[in-house]
Amino acid sequence: MSQRGFSIGVLTLSDKGARGEREDVSGQVLREMVAGLGEVTHYQVVPDDVETIVKILVEWIDTERLDLVLTTGGTGLSPRDVTPEATARVLDWEIPGMAEAMRMASLQHTPHAMLSRAKAGVRGRAMIINLPGSPKGVRENLAVVLPALEHGLRKLQGDPADCAG
Question: HEC states along 16-55?
């Protein structure tokens, strides 16, 4: 954790985005929404490829020591939606309540939310959260978990304070 807050990575998974055929609006929304939590020190747009995603997640957390990695895209049912599989390969354990909360909140806006396969979990002392690929989905989902993020990240980093309130 830096003096200004947590170090954060934003990873956008999009074949079109990686080819420069689509602007990454969702990644920009993430950057704006987490500004009060810390600094986005790493940002990348890559294709929907399991090995590429795994490599970046491991590098950002194990080598670069990021505290939080937020992914956007690749959580649905399309054949190229592989973000949950890649994330599962690197997690030490899942935080099912976060993914459940995001799906429940999204169901208030669209029945398609139940098709999300997004994961949230921990690798080492870092958290990884998969978010949808649309700006609207990112806003709705991140807004649900954002209030718990600072506390969760501090606990992962060894904060001994009681979990009151």
Answer: HHHCCCCCCHHHHHHHHHCCCCEEEEEEEEECCCHHHHHH
Closest CA to 11 of 62, 66, 88, 76: 66
Integer Cα distance of 102 and 112 in angstroms: 12
- 19-64 pLDDT tens trace: 999 999 999 999 999 999 999 999 999 999 999 999 999 999 999 9
How many CB atoms within 10 Å of residue 73?
28
Is the whole-model pTM more than 0.85? yes
Of 118, 115, 67, 116, which Cα lies nearest the Cα of 95? 118
CA distance 141 to 106: 7
- Could you tell me if residue 76 is inside a domain? yes
Residue 78 lies in a domain: yes
Report the CATH number that the domain containing residue 134 is assigned in CATH: 3.40.980.10
Residues pairing with 8 in the sheet: 40, 68
Looking at residue 165, what is its pLDDT?
A: 57
- At residue 76, the 3 state secondary structure works out as coil
